[in-house]
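Problem: given the chain below (599 residues), write out its structure.
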Amino acid sequence: MEATENKKGSGGAFIIQNHLNQEIFTPEDFNEEQQMMKAAVKEFIDREVWPQKERFEKKDYGLTKSLMEQAGSLGFLSVSVPEAYGGLGMGFVSSMLVCDYISGATGSFSTAFGAHTGIGTLPITLYGTEEQKQKYLPKLSSGEWFGSYCLTEPGAGSDANSGKTKAVLSEDGTHYKISGQKMWISNAGFASLMIVFARIEDDKNITGFIVPYEPENGIRLGEEENKLGIHASSTRQVFFSETQVPVENMLGERGGGFKIAMNALNVGRVKLGVACLDAQRRVTTEAIKYANERVQFKTPISQFGAIKEKIARMASSCYAGESACYRAAKEIEDRIQYFVSQGMSHQEAELKGVEDFAVECSIIKVGASEDVQNCADEGIQIFGGMGFSADTPMESAWRDARIGRIYEGTNEINRMLSVGMLLKKGMKGQIDLMAAVMQAVAELGANESPKNASGTILTEEQNLIHNFKQLFLMLTGNAVQKYGTQLEDHQQVLLSLSDILIEIYFSESALLRTLKNCDREGAEAQKTQQALVKHYVYEAHDIVLKKAKEVILSISKGAEQKQLLEVVSKSCSYSDYPNIVDVKTEIADRFISENSYFL
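Solution.
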């Protein structure tokens, strides 16, 4: 079924292909329906959520639940639920858009929304029987019920399949008795339904179950956890003591729970990435406003170069993150539609479509969660002493952002997964990775790297990104040659390769977005966007150079090492360096004049 023309749209293929800018989807491509949904979500957040930040910080869990109920009444909880079960049945891009703009005001509401619509509801949508979907999805999509996801245990975090919670079949075969302890369960304090993972007998893999929250059925909640951030997100331990679950409430097949958990996490990862974006926009906007208002030495601090540098960095990472998230969203949506066209049910197609882009899901999760943390940190610095005060929005934004690097698999796990899954796709023949590695070795081994830029705009950046890809392929090939199947044991090498992969995807996404918009609006109208790309690629260049050297120093020595280092120096070199201070000043001046992140 993997036809040649189909591989063009395969997940992970970005590393071996040069994409045309017209092939990428950008935020500027939202259709009328999506623009209306974006406006509705922003209005709700600005009116009902943003003004309540103080109450969130005071652990007002009731407020979180009340606002979730309002979100349900407005249809925001049902975007990705099929119409047959009370949802809006909108596509993956629309689902990402709602997750983006509903998540920026506070991490508490963002967590409640993400846990409910993602890992709390999605497993039933994707794996539930027709009876299960008819019974539970209408209540979940309307906000009548809220969902939670019970996977993590005291001894089972990143190693999710090692959970000790047991499910024992009753003597009459009508139900399972679940016993065990789950921890860090979001929405536990007001969830009506729990997706619970437990092991039946000595099965190799865990199994999923749909468990209504009924305290009298052997379910007990721990106290609310005291957390660094997301203060009004309900987070509790859940204890099961011979909780009776009808056999018809098994989710998917026996032993299929690990697969359910991993596929739910793939969706959760890319949605966590997009959920970081509006927080970045809001932090950047608040920092710009403050910098324009704050006067020191008779001058608004926004006019100081040290502040402009921070604003440029904040805006550039947000622009690249937007570009990467919506590029991936449309690629996943298109993949789902492709599988439907091949005769799959929408349920099967969505599972396979998201799974196919697991590499991009991990990349986006890592990149966006770290960018929002850095953005909030810069925001605090711009506010100075006031930024450290709980009376300003920066302090809570910084604390709320920190959980993103832990959610949906730690960033370290996701870094290693991104490279590991890419290699697995190559071994399965889903992408022609080996041929691309050989071509990269030949190209980089030549005296002159070929120029691959098209047009006359951002040619330096186009050539650099192409060379970043070739360098990644060459280094990955060398690492596999040296370590073979033991590469997964060399985690520091994988981490460095992953950092290069992340910079490639984010840089190329920002580049293609800008080139596409230059084509339709004219280069002059996209001067700020071009500057954002120049700045982001300049920063990426240093990361790629550093991480490539780390890989080379690990996998080689002697003459081979010297040769590889020379290849890195050549392939990562600018032919004409930009005046990066001028570039950053141009970016900052534009955003300062708009008094916000305006894109």
